User: Fold this.
Amino acid sequence: MTSLSTETPRERGEDGPRGGREPARRGAPGAAEEPEAAIRLAGLAKTYGTGKGRPALDTVDLVIPRGSLFGLLGPNGAGKSTLINILAGLVLKSAGKAVIWGIDIDEAPRQARAAIGIVPQELNIDPFFTPRELLDLHAGFYGVPRRERRTDELLATLGLTDKATAPARTLSGGMRRRLMVAKAMVHAPPVLVLDEPTAGFDVELRLQLWAHVRELNARGTTVLLTTHYLEEAEELCDRIAIIDRGRLVVAERTEVLLRRLDDKSLTIATAEHVTSVPAALAGFRVEIAAPGRLVFRYRPSRTRLAELLDAVRASGLTIVDLSTTEADLQDVFLRLTGSAAIARARP
Ligand code: ADP
Ligand code: MG
Assistant:
């Protein structure tokens, strides 16, 4: 139940003496050069409390390429918020390195923080401000000069123009979340981080937020979001990392990951009491589960169901019943997180 302060003691200590040596946020030599990696984590670890318990984050190495729409997927308690909060400067890491937009969070914490906009898991919006006031106020916090503010553009991008002058308490849950996204973007950070942005949303709200996130990404913002919905990561993200019990299980391009999951099974009951695979079907991945019960494994992207059925008929068998199963999202997740054991066993 540690309460998270926005300014960690360590950062306060470092900001003073080192502040003057940090490069200016904009216009510094090399600032125009955009890093390949929006975020780079090496051996990042966190153990809460006395440091003796199980790590919430366990030596995570991860690169989030510039321009990507990156999904950090994992069940509750996996360590997603811990990772995000380390980036936000809200949680002190126990070990490892985190570099945001080329800036090491230990060397230049303020600079690093200025490079990201964070939408935390919990909504905290003052109900009495209007969206326009809130964004202006927040831009003020960040020292964004008036002429550089993009309040109206942000309101429009997040679909809040109509509500610009309505008190935040009158906004729906979906609108509030979008206002949080706008708030995170007032200082035009190159990286936007959203912690479970659609948790508790119905399908329609989810789709709306996805559209806004896609738009921000299309305009050049690198997006890192956490989710416990595999579908969300699949549909929205171009890359997915799966995290489980503090360990990174896999990080891949979405299509590569999906190809791995391209696996279905077809169970066929035949009138004949076959007890061994007929020679005509030897070319398939098929097993006899019980007499007269054949189970095929196939990749839907390569093999059509009709092809399998034709082959069974051609082998002289009579199909009396059939069913297909697809690893459902939970299965898939379990299968992948099950492989964490393998990763853990490696040195
Ligand atoms: P996720 O966001 O994936 O649900 P969290 O990062 O919130 O996971 O939590 C990871 C683990 O760390 C969990 O076991 C959680 O109970 C623990 N944890 C999170 N925040 C704190 C905290 N402030 N103090 C102690 N333990 C915490
Ligand atoms: Mg969380």
Remarks:
- The chain has a mean pLDDT of 84.
